[in-house]
């Protein structure tokens, strides 16, 4: 299952609300998003130990509150629509 937070950077939605979540669909199935189309989807928490690696390399660690802030900053830097971050928070991490 794909971490919904990291889907196509051109899709515009509140990414913070989708952190640590995936589509609530059966494994092996998919949902297509066509240009200009608006669609509602059901999301559920990623289970297990909530370690998220791969995808678009926005998280690559345990899905917790600190990693959410870092991932939001990375997403904003990389042009993911709907990604808003507290740049001051990330600045203090880098220092």
UniProtKB/TrEMBL annotation:
Superkingdom per UniProt: Bacteria
GO cellular component: urease complex
GO MF annotation terms: urease activity
Reaction catalyzed: urea + 2 H2O + H(+) = hydrogencarbonate + 2 NH4(+)
One GO BP annotation of this record: urea catabolic process
UniProt keyword terms in alphabetical order: Hydrolase
Pfam families xref list: Urease_beta (PF00699)
Protein name: UreA
Lineage, broadest ranks: Bacteria, Pseudomonadati, Campylobacterota, Epsilonproteobacteria, Campylobacterales
Underlying gene: ureA
């Amino acid at each position: 299952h794909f971490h919904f937070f990291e889907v196509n950077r051109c899709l515009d939605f509140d990414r913070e609300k989708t952190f640590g979540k995936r589509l609530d669909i059966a494994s092996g199935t998919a949902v297509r998003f066509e240009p200009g189309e608006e669609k509602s989807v059901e999301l559920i928490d990623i289970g297990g130990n909530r370690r998220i690696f791969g995808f678009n390399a926005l998280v690559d660690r345990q899905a917790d509150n600190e990693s959410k802030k870092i991932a939001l900053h990375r997403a904003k830097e990389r042009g993911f629509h709907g990604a808003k971050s507290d740049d001051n928070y990330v600045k203090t991490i880098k220092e």
